[in-house]
Amino acid sequence: MAALIAEAGERGAGLVVFSELALTHYDLHLIAADPAGLAVRPDDARLAPVREACRTAGVAAVVNAAGRGADVGAAPTIATFVYGPDGALLTRYDKRHLADTESTVFAPGTAHGRFTLGGIRFALATCFDSSFPEVPQRAVADGCRVYLSSAFHDGAERVARYAELAREHGLYVLLVNGIEVGSPGPACGLSGGWLPSGERVATASAWPGAGDGDSDDGGELVLSDVREAITLMADPAVAAVPVRECGEPLVDLRAAAPALLADGFKGEGDGGTGAFGYLREGVVRRLLAAQRALPDGLRLQVVEGYRPPALQRRYFERYGGELRAAHPDWDVMRVRQAASRFVSPPEIAPHSAGGAVDLTLVTTDGEYVDMGTPVDASPEESGGACYTSAPDLAPAARANRRALAAALRGAGLVNYPTEWWHWSYGDRYWALATGAEHALYGPAEPGEEPAGESGAAPEARGTEAGAEPALLREGAER
């Protein structure tokens, strides 16, 4: 498993998923003979190589195994452990629906499996779970965009049902199916991915022992792109996050943290005030911690911190105008959604709250390192390489992005997945990504005490005068 995680990371994967009971292979007789010895907890020493591979490769992993219960002597579960790119446990899911043969060995779970990674909300299911329509229905109701199933199906007709699941529920679906012979017989392989339309966009070969193919490479790694499932800044879920302003001040980064390089600030629109050098105090502390965690020879280079609301609106409308010119058939909502890949809607902008920072890496001598694109490269001009987990990056750029991400994530910041350089703490997107009940920072101005705020953004409430979001106003810049 550790070797596959490393290989997948080298090929540009951000998430690796394993099949049902992959840790022991799907052998119920083996597990029934020694449930105490073969069942594991997420922190089991035998899974240490997996956790370390995740940390080293900067890749998350979904591992299915016989899971040890909380009570001594309790029956094991068919458990899924999700480890993040830092090797820490993101969630555990226990299979809810057991086949008859499984129920003699395992106990069913009760919780729904959910986790967020790279701005994408994932749902977990295990094999027989997917035969129950309420499982994907609940995933959609919970805001999940991607449905992951670890399975041990024996025939291509069972695999084909995932196309119907994707189409019926509007989900991206990733199936990881077992191969070779388990206690119920052979599994057919054919792991792959489906778009919400039901179109299959990724596939592994069939395992020939199951009689479904003529390839002998049933373990082929398959990459499936689900970047379209990223929750963007324009998503109503972001605007709906309430803000409870903590009152933390904006501080001048250059004076408060001289250990950080901050000589590359952009100055457009600040009237020479140096407002771009400001960040919330808590963000500055976390940047200092992140810099201490970087590998030797690397430093953070801050490019932009605080952004005045008027300038944020100008950026957003200007980029929206460019998209309208390039795509005259797009309606205003599609333009707004696409624009938010690169510029946040001004009414919820993390930069205007002082919680977001654009930055990159340099050497200790101040030389910029290869990050794959310049800071502020749009999706159009970079061909999508601005996405944090973009495939086809040069090895050096991928390694540098991983080093940056590991340091910043370890310090408590979250990334906006369409921009490798944008990280934040305390804002609405941070709250949504981390599961916090509310954001800590609302709009702020340097030199002024931050005002308290308790509700969702005006766009989410939809009742306040003058609250129409940019790109929806009549006469917006075109």
Could you list some keywords that capture this structure?
four-stranded mixed β-sheet, alpha+beta, 478 residues, Nitrilase/N-carbamoyl-D-aminoacid amidohydrolase, hydrolase, 16 helices, Muramoyl-pentapeptide Carboxypeptidase, domain 2
In short:
The protein is of the alpha+beta class and 478 residues long. It is 28% helix and 19% strand. The chain has two domains: 2-229, Nitrilase/N-carbamoyl-D-aminoacid amidohydrolase, CATH 3.60.110.10; 236-461, Muramoyl-pentapeptide Carboxypeptidase, domain 2 (2-Layer Sandwich), CATH 3.30.1380.10.
Please explain how this structure is put together:
Its EC number is 3.4.13.22. The active site is at residue 419. This is D-alanyl-D-alanine dipeptidase. Belongs to the peptidase M15D family. Its cofactor is Zn(2+). The chain has 478 residues and is an alpha+beta fold. The chain has two domains: 2-229, 4-Layer Sandwich (Nitrilase/N-carbamoyl-D-aminoacid amidohydrolase), CATH 3.60.110.10; 236-461, Muramoyl-pentapeptide Carboxypeptidase, domain 2, CATH 3.30.1380.10. Helices cover 28% and strands 19% of the residues. It contains 16 helices and 18 strands. It has helices at 2-10, 28-33, 35-38, 48-57, 100-103, 134-141, 156-169, 236-239, 253-256, 281-293, 309-326, 332-339, 379-382, 395-410, 428-434, 458-461, and strands at 15-17, 60-67, 77-83, 89-94, 113-117, 120-126, 146-151, 172-177, 179-182, 185-188, 192-194, 200-203, 250-252, 278-280, 298-304, 356-363, 414-415, 422-424. The strands form five sheets. Strands 5-6-7-8-11-12 form a six-stranded mixed beta sheet, covered by helices on one side. A four-stranded mixed beta sheet has the order 1-2-3-4. Strands 15-16-18-17 form a four-stranded antiparallel beta sheet, sandwiched between helices. Helix 1 (2-10) packs parallel to helix 4 (48-57) and helix 11 (309-326) packs across helix 12. The longest helix is centred in the middle third of the chain and has 18 residues, at 309-326. The chain is globular, with a radius of gyration of 24 Å. It starts with a helix and ends in a 17-residue tail after the last helix. The model is unreliable at 212-218 and 457-478 (pLDDT under 50).
